[in-house]
Design brief:
Pfam families: BD-FAE. InterPro entries: AB_hydrolase_fold (IPR029058), BD-FAE-like_dom (IPR049492), GDXG_lipolytic_enzyme (IPR050300). This is BD-FAE-like domain-containing protein. The chain has one domain: Alpha/Beta hydrolase fold, catalytic domain (Rossmann fold, 3-Layer(aba) Sandwich). It is globular, with a radius of gyration of 18 Å. α1 packs parallel to α2. It contains ten helices and eight strands. It has 305 residues and is an alpha/beta fold.
Length: 305
Amino acid sequence: MKKKNLFIILVVAVVFISAVLLLLMSGGKNPATYSDIHYGPDARNTMDIYLPDSAENMTGDVPAFVYIHGGSWIEGSKEEGEGYAKGLNSNGYAVISINYRYLSDDVDGCDIMDDVDLAMKWIQENGDDYHIRTDKIAVGGDSAGGHLAMLYAYSYKNPPVPIAFVVSNVGPLDLSDPGVFSNPYAEEGTDYFFWELLNMLAGTNYTMEEMKVGATPDLLKASPIYYVDANSPPTIFAYGVKDELVPFSNVERMQEKVSNLSGFEHEFFIFENSGHELNKEGEDQSVAEEYYRAVFEGLGRYLPK
C-alpha cells in the first residue's frame, strides 16, 4: 500500500508541476472563475470555467481549451487546470477544467469517456451563457489526462463540439506496450498495482504475464495509438526520454504509427533530459520554449480568436 501511494503522489505532483510550467512560460493574470458547475449526475461530474473576463463584461465569444487532469485515473482534480487558465486566459482563451469519475470496481475507462462526452455535451448546450464558442474546441491534459484527451479526440468521430486541436503532455499512448513494466516501480515489486490499474481501465482480466509480453489486445483498444488516423485532430506531443512511468517505447510506437498517416498534422517535442516531469530549465529549456510556443501557435492556427 505504501508503494502504491508513492506512485500516486509522484503522478499528482508531476501533473501539478506541468500545469505550473505553462503558467510560468506565459505570464498571466487571475481569470474570472466559475467553479463546481455540474455537467452530469455523478458527484465527480463537475467543471470549473476560467474566462479572460467575467461573463457579464464580455461582449463576444472566445475559443476554449478543455483541460483533463492527471493522477493515474484514480487521483487528481480539476483545480490543476488553474495554471493553464492563467496562461491561456491572458491570451484570449477560456479554459474548462473537468473532473471525472475515478477508476474503481464499478468505473472503467469507458465510463470515464462517457464523462468526458457528457462534459462536451454540456459545453455545446451551455457554452453561450459563458461567451464560449461551441463551433469547435481544443482539448488536452497531463499524464492520465493527456491519455483521456487523445482517446476522446481520436475515438469519438462525431463529438458534440468538434475537436480542433489536441495537446498531450506525457499522456500514455499504448497501454499494451510491455515497456510499461520496465520501470523501477515494477522492479521494486509494485507490478500488482500496474496490473490491477490497467485491468480496471480496460475492464479486462489479463494476467500479469500476459501484460508483460503485450498479449493484451483490449488494452490496445483502450489506447490512443489504436484510434489515431489520418483524419484525427492536429496534435502536439511532449514526452521525456527518461520517463519512468510512460516509457519512451510508447513514444517510439506512436511515432512509427503516425509516420504512415498522410494528412495527420502533428509534432513531437522530446525532452532528452526529462522524466515524467518535463523540465523548463537547464538542458531542456530550449525544447520547453519551443513546445509552449507551438501550443500557442497551434491554438492560433486551429482555434483562432
